[in-house]
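Dear Dr. H.,

I hope your travels went smoothly. While you were away I took the liberty of generating a structure for the chain from your last submission, since the lab meeting agenda had it listed for discussion. I wanted you to have the full record in hand beforehand rather than looking at slides cold. The sequence, exactly as received, is reproduced here:
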Amino acid sequence: MSRLLPILFILFSFGVNSACLKSGDYVELYGRLVVKQFPNPLAESDNPTENKFYSKWMLELDPPLTCVTDVDDETFKNWNKEVQLFQGEKISKDEMDKMKNKHVHFSGELSVAAGAPFEFAAVGLDVEKAFLAPVE
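The corresponding predicted structure, in token form, is as follows:
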């Protein structure tokens, strides 16, 4: 019996980790596409030219993520509810604008924030495909 416990523990641990998303995974996500404003993370004074806001594409997820390996849930309290979108070459700004404030499907490569100043969400998605979600 004592030999069986370590084996069960290893199998259980492997099963739990395999369900978690990780940086580099290709995923499909669904939610509402919005543009959010964020203050300049590098601003050191109250100078308006230095403190300009940045508009970033965000996906408000439906449903929320359940598990992402190495996610920073301390800094990003809503880590599982929104994803910062990185518009690639395959999706034009016009396409994104047409989908703004609508429910959409996005697919692409997942990334986990590594502490860079212009990461405004714990999880990012390098968008490769996008389309409007069917109306229900």
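Two observations you may find useful: The chain is about 15% helix and 35% strand. The beta strands are 26-38, 54-61, 82-87, 103-112, 123-132.

With kind regards,
E. W.
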